[in-house]
C-alpha cells in the first residue's frame, strides 16, 4: 500500500500496521486518519488477511495522541465536534472489523493513542509502555471514544481516576486495571502479538466474526437481548461448512481445515 505515516506489512495471514511519524511520536494527524481508513478497508475486504496487529515505530511511542498542532488550529466548537466525530467513526469501524485486531503497545499510548488501542480487541504492552488520557492537561477531554470505552472496560471509578488526573499509568498497573491483557519484555512484544494474531487467523473466520459481534453488540444491551443475539450468532455459525469440518476433524483426530464459509 502507498502510505506515508503508516507501514503495511503482511506475514502469512497477519497484517502488521506500524504508526510511523517520528517527528511527533506517531501522533494522529488527518493524513494518518485517511491512511488508517484505507487500511481498515483493505483488512475488511482482503481474504488473505485473517488478523491485524497495530504497533508504533521506534521504542518510545505507540501513538502519543491526536496531533496537538492540528487541535490548536481548530477555531470553533463545531470544528472540535467534527474532528471528534471523524475519529470516533473511524475507531468504530476499526472496532467493527470482522477480524481480530491486536494492539502491540510499545511505548507511550496517550490520549487518542490509547483510544486507538481501546478500539482494538486485545492489547499487549511492553513493560516500558505508559498509558493514559492526559487531555485534561490541555483543557480537553478524550474525544475518540475514551470516556465510553475506558469506563466500560475498567469501571467508572478507575476511568474517572485516569481521565480526571490525566496521569499515565505503567504497563503493570494497566494490566492490574484490565486495560491490557498481557505485559511483555519490550523485545518480545511484537513477536508475541504476531504469534497470537497468527493463531487467531487460523480459526474459523465466520465463527470468529460472530463471536466478536456477539460480545460487542451484547455488551451494548441487556443480558436477555445479548443471549438472544448469542443464540442467533450460534445458529449462523452452526450452519457453516467450517462447523461441519470442525466437528468432523475432531472425530478424525486431525486439525480442521477452515475455509471461511
Ligand atoms: N501531537 C503533536 N506533536 C507531539 C505530540 C502530539 N500528541 N506528542 C509529542 N509530540 C512532539 C513534540 O512536540 C516533540 O516535537 P519537537 O521535537 O518538534 O519539539 C516531539 O514529538 C517529541 O516529544 P517530546 O519532546 O515532548 O518528548 P518527551 O520525551 O519529552 O515527552 C511525551 C514524551 C510525554 C509523550 C510528550 O511528548 C507528551 O506529553 N506528548 C503529548 C501527549 C498528549 O497530551 N496526548 C494527548 C493529545 S490530545 C488527544 O489525543 C485528544 C484525542 C481526542 C481528540 C478529539 C478531537 C477534537
Automatic annotation (TrEMBL):
Enzyme category, top tier: lyase
InterPro entries listed in its UniProt record: ClpP/crotonase-like_dom_sf (IPR029045), Enoyl-CoA_hyd/isom_CS (IPR018376), Enoyl-CoA_hydra/iso (IPR001753), Enoyl-CoA_hydra_C (IPR014748)
Presence of the UniProt keyword Glycoprotein in the record: no
UniProt-listed PROSITE patterns: ENOYL_COA_HYDRATASE (PS00166)
Sorted UniProt keywords: Lyase
Catalytic activity: a short-chain (3S)-3-hydroxyacyl-CoA = a short-chain (2E)-enoyl-CoA + H2O
Enzyme Commission code: 4.2.1.150
Molecular function, one GO term: 3-hydroxyacyl-CoA dehydratase activity
Membrane-spanning intervals of the chain: none
Pathway: Lipid metabolism; butanoate metabolism
Gene Ontology biological process terms, A to Z: fatty acid beta-oxidation
Family, per entry: Belongs to the enoyl-CoA hydratase/isomerase family.
Assembly and interaction partners: Homotetramer.
Annotated protein name in UniProt: short-chain-enoyl-CoA hydratase
